[in-house]
Write a structure and sequence with these properties.
Blueprint lengths: L1 E7 L13 H6 L3 H12 L6 E2 L5 E2 L4 E7 L2 E7 L3 E7 L6 H8 L3 H8 L3 H16 L5 H6 L9 E8 L2 E8 L2
Antiparallel strand pairs: 1-5, 2-3, 4-5, 6-8, 7-8
């Protein structure tokens, strides 16, 4: 089972970094990182820590963190999982980015519907997918086509001007 929690950082009470374990405090420098770590611990994640590449790991769940604008999203799962949230910005040059980073079915999907929603639908899938193994942008630059990936389940929703995607590897 996958649990997801996303929230507007400006609407939450202040998070106290001093309440986090020392190893987590050492990693978390920004308010959104402190909030994300606090919420994962509140969700029952045990022994939260971070790999060298910044990927959060825990003993009892696979976990993932994302933030954009004022929103923070966290998730935990019994399966490898990645999450991404992006503030929808209609002023970006989607076509240029899509031509560089979208491949195969992704390009077809975007070219049929060249809108901000279509762009962010694909982009958040790409980022959520790459967070499963902690490879991030490196995987995106290699040319992964998330619309052709097998053994992964995506759930994408548009919420209050943000696109949120969870990607879970299916056993």
């Amino acid at each position: 089972m996958t649990s997801v929690y996303f929230f507007n950082l400006t609407e939450k009470t202040e998070y106290d970094k001093k309440l986090l374990p020392q190893n987590v405090r050492d990693h978390c420098k920004k308010p959104e990182s402190i909030a994300a770590a606090t919420e994962l611990l509140n969700m029952g994640v045990e022994n939260l820590r971070y790999e060298e590449n910044g990927k959060p790991i825990a003993d009892n769940y696979f976990v993932s963190i994302s933030h954009s604008g004022d929103m923070v999203a966290v998730c935990k799962s019994e399966n490898p999982v990645g999450i991404d949230i992006e503030k929808i910005d209609d002023t970006r040059n989607f076509e240029k980015i899509a031509n560089r980073y979208f491949h195969g079915k992704e390009k077809e999907f975007f070219n049929e519907n060249p809108t901000a929603d279509a762009f962010y639908d694909i982009w958040t899938k790409k980022e959520a997918y790459t967070k499963i193994d902690g490879n991030g942008v490196i995987e995106i630059q290699k040319g992964i086509d998330v619309l052709s990936i097998e053994n992964h389940q995506f759930q994408t929703e548009k919420v209050n001007g943000y696109m949120l995607t969870i990607c879970e590897r299916i056993k």
